[in-house]
Known about the structure:
- The protein is an alpha+beta fold.
- It folds into two domains: about 15-255, Glutamine Phosphoribosylpyrophosphate, subunit 1, domain 1; about 270-484, Rossmann fold, CATH 3.40.50.
- About 30% of the residues lie in helices and about 25% in strands.
- The chain has 19 helices and 23 strands.
- A hairpin with a 2-residue loop joins strand 9 and strand 10 (about 205-210).
- The longest helix has 15 residues, at about 275-290.
- The chain is elongated and about 70 Å long.
- Adenosine monophosphate binds near residues 303, 367, 371 and 406.
Amino acid sequence: MSYSFDNYSKEELHEECGVFGIVSDGSMDPAYACYNGLLALQHRGQESCGIAVSDEGVIDYHKNMGLVSEVFNNEILDSLTGQMGISHVRYSTAGGSVLENAQPLVMRYVKGTIAVAHNGNLTNAVEIRRELEQRGAIFQTTIDSEVICYLIARARLKCHSVEEAVVETMRKIKGAYSLLVMSPRKIIAARDPHGFKPLCIGKYNNTIVFASESSALDACGAEFIRDVEPGEIIIANVDGYHSIKPDFGEKERSICIFEYIYFARSDSFIDGVSVYEARKQAGRILAREFPVDADMVVGVPESGIDAAIGYAEESGIPYEKAIVKNGYIGRTFIQPTQKERMKNVRIKLNPIADKIKGKRVVIIDDSIVRGTTVDRIVTMLREAGAKEVHMRISSPPFLWPCYYGTDIPSRGELIACNHSIEEIRQLSGADSLGYLPVGSLHEMIGYAPVGFCHGCFTGKYPASITNITLEGKERGGMDFVKKC
Ligand code: AMP
């Protein structure tokens, strides 16, 4: 979920989220499995989290603001008994950061209760919501996921099953969604027909597990079965699972390339591609494209490290862990104001000064968004006595907004929109700066036969939102979203 219907301030950021679900054969406790799964997905969202379980058809849930370890304790987990459960972590935003927007959303309607956990951003949620409101619908949250919940509940009144209602809903909604829908006796997992957001399925004995990333399956001891296919719907209950693939028309496969660059954990595999290998490969490409004489290669923890290892391997320059990260601070990017972001970069990262003093350093980060981090890193290395600082970025310049749920601010705030690469280098104080070429993205994922969305780098979005993006581009990205 990432769309908020109020508080469209310039500072508002979109969200990344993580989902985890389980139908247990009795060998795993659903609430505890969800808890472990959410811990493994915590990097995808640190604002709020929740678990909903179904016990013999009765759905109960607990959700709150905060980290998974803060929101849940043994007492709460013990009270969430049942045979199945779905759960969610939500990424922080400046607006809409309230408990009512936490997930899973649990809705009671005439056919019973459903719970929904959603990762992604719908591109036509406002349209649908307005239409529904004009016909008397009342919404309790400001998020697009409630639109999904409402459409499923409404479709269910006419359909024979929840899965049919999910299919009906998928015919109406557009954009990015990896969904877990729990009705009292089954869990339905669905991935949008483009496959923007990851979703996979695993098992442990006859227990079925769904997760945004394969590392969350590992965390609860489940074995990876496969990725849920774009446009696929998997229905799981205590007797097993089956899959349906309704015809949604020809759709370009479009996994978000930024999952490999930044979002996902290095130990995850997404659509058959190792996130770690993709990041290392980006580093190798950077070493070939932007070689330099240097004494050491350093990665900005955490997401720059794998690329730094790749750069070191390819260039023969030794890798050095010369920056230490305080692991107890959330991702800097999610801090709501520029001032807080500046402050937190300092608290979060600290160089090992005697390693750096007098050295020529190649430093690698995964991306430059507003330019805050690159500026701080270069200053930090200079203050630690680095003789030369060569910045390498394992993604192309961010130039366009994302309509599918990636947290990218308005174009005005994207430093690469208003500055040339040379200007960014000068502003950051680096001796040289090199970005991963857009044309290398396919090589980064090992030429895997998966289509990916690179709209944030190229402005070219999958066909289905052409009319929206054209307008959005002219208006400067997020303005489009506000207009909706
Ligand atoms: P900035 O400091 O604004 O240039 O942002 C760049 C830093 O934010 C990099 O170090 C990234 O690791 C991190 N980052 C990039 N994109 C995102 C995102 N969508 N959400 C959270 N953090 C991000």
